[in-house]
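To close the chapter, one final illustration. This time we ask the reader to focus less on the individual chains and more on the assembly as a whole: which components sit near each other, and how the overall shape emerges from the parts.
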Amino acid sequence: MESEVVEAELVLPTHLSFKKVQMYEKYPKGQSRGRHWKHLKQILQAENLQNYPPDEPNYVNIESPPSMHPSVKICDITGLEAPYHDPRTNLRYANTEVFKQIRALPNEYVQRYLALRNAAVVLK
Amino acid sequence: MPFISQIQRQSDYAYFPSDTPIVIDNGASYFRIGWAGENEPRVIFRNIVQRPRHKGTGETVTIVGDHDPALLRYFDCTRSGPRSAFDNNVVYQFEIMEYILDFGFDRLGANGSQIDHPVLITECVCNPVHSRSKMSELLFETYGVPSVAFGVDAAFSYKYNQRHGICNEDGLAICPGFNTTHVIPFVAGEPVYKGCTRTNIGGYHVTDYLKQLLSLKYPHHMARFTWEKVEDLKMEHCYIAPTYASETRLFQKGTEEAEDKTRVWQLPWVPPPVEEAPSEEEIARKAALRERQGQRLRDMAEAKRSSRINELENELRGLEFLLLQLEQVQAHEIPNFLRETGYHSRQEIEASAHKVTLSLRKAKGEPKADQSEAEDKTDSSSEKYPLISIPDEMLTPEQIKEKRKQIFLKTTSDGRQRAKQKRLEEESERERRNQLDEERRLENPELYLEQTRARYKELSERVEQRKRLKTNGNQTNGNSGGVGRGERLSAAQRERMRLLTTAAFDRGKGEDTFGARDEDWQLYKLMSKDNDDDDDGPEPDEVELARISSRLQEIDRTFVPKSEAETSQPGSEVLKSRPLTQEDFKIVLGIERFRCPEVLFNPNLVGIGQAGVDEMAGVSIRRLPEKDEELEKRLTSSILMTGGSCLYPGMCERLEAGIRMIRPCGAPIKIVRALDPILDAWRGASAYAASAQFPQQTFTRMDYFEKGEDWIRGYKFRYTL
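The assembled structure is written out below.
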């Protein structure tokens, strides 16, 4: 290892005296161990929240409800107010200049702009 | 950079007695660890882990937090990005969490055989029991921690500010964090989780939005927008507009105010080296070089030619010598004599001698024409082809054969003659036309030039049109949306399709006469695929075009013939090859400055349908178990903003305006920012852990194993001291 790296103590030591079980003992090298953790979705499913009274607060029911405010429609490119919507690309746009621009955009960019507001076409 | 990690290793770990708790604020963006009772955390670092491969040794190493990026050049980080233990604001990957805790305790100076201090660690509101129990298991089993307590960061921050008189006993804590935003109502100094709301939006989304927008706007500089850099930009430049619509209108009008609000980041830009026009000397040098190369090629060709001539001459001499020898040999000895030469008869030798002479002549560059001239001379036909005019009956079979040969030779030579004649005529015609042109030019040079140009333009357009028709069916380039089958075919292909379809239909009940006439069979020729490229020589238009363009080049120096590439692809090529200027290296932050933080108030900008921060406050109050107007007034007159994402300028005003809209008219509203929105959570926790009541809030390893999961689920921290 380079001296700079050692000096900065960049790398976490593999053996730490204050640990009762070391990392290399828990996860021995060379053994495939697959996925040993749950996604948040799985965690929440395992909570069995349906077995508890609904007025008891939990991670799922404290989430905010859908917004009641009218959603603001802004131009995907410039961020200005967007009164128009291009049916071909599905992008919202503010004026003719932006329209020209979006018509010249390659499809990849159109999809990336749409992905920003979670409206892109996702192929599965 | 407004925020820097502190990762120096502490040396005073041993001085703390074993009942001094260790306080950890385990936030999704930063990890802070320190001692209870102190005012500042000892160690702060980003809550991320990278596991790159060391380039030298090839081993996989663990790097926790953010380090000097220059040091990372020794590592191959391509396959492992920075990873976080958090999904939303819940810890779910405890392997990563373990690396982070390792690093945190290590930098705090721990060196004993276990961590012999109680630990207070923060968690999210209503942490799922799986996450909480896994965390305690990790702390108890791996580090040997004697007892553990879990608290909510926003609550600690609220309590800390309450103690400093910033907010009251009853109030709302609004906490926009890294992954999520919480609103927690406090009644009598305790958080009421029933009234709590969470929207899954936070600083992460703001930075990500800004990063994506900038890299879409400036695709050239995509590599410059690293996460860290964009985070810096966000902290330095982003603000929250009083109302989004009014702020954008300022920018739309292009007012001076908007210009003031626009920030420009100039990337380092080096002007590309200007290509100087080559000097006279340079041109001369290049010409000389080219000349020299040309000379060399010519020399080589000359040498090759002379060697070939030599060869041929030698061969010819050999053959002549052979013929001379043959004359001295008796007739019956000829086959014997010729056996070793490879020839069978005298005629054969003569023929090959003739062939060699011809190729020798060709190699020497003597005109081939003298052959035909020779023919011309002797072309009184009667003496050359004597048998032609004699009727067949008077000839022997051999003579008839000979006669046929002569007829063939005569017709071919006649054909050649005619072609030559035609060529000559064409040449003279062209000459005549050029002469005519020349005369017209001399008469009125300007008029002539104009006419020629007009003619050139007309012709080139016509040729162009024909070419397009041939290759592309019609003039729309296929991208206009219509993609019908017919539109994509060229004219020839379409004709072929038409023929095929008509041929496919039965021709009716009458007598089938197909094939009776010769023209019918022509159909198959038209249908065959080879017909597609109808290369029936250059069109007359094209010939004329070539003539005119060469003529124009002669008389008009400025004339440049249109090349094919130019006419077919206008515009786009020019745009691509334009050299980048200083302007292109300017990153302009205009609307983005307030567009990105706007997602906190309108999460639907990034496709999240939940309520924004201001709306959440209203939801939170509605969710409280009992309706109490007095309490609601008390809550809204003590609203505390804490957490990293409330640092934007304008946040306070916007939030007040938003909450005022959803509260009844005249309701008291007071919004304050925490003393230090980022560190107050840790400070509150530290103060709490130092108090005498803290040990009652903790649970031990024994409790953890004896009381079971349901107890851990019900575990609730009391914040009132």
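Confidence is low (pLDDT under 50) at residues 369-379, 473-484, 563-575 of chain B. The two ends of chain B are 37 Å apart (CA to CA). With these observations in hand, you are ready for the problems at the end of the chapter.
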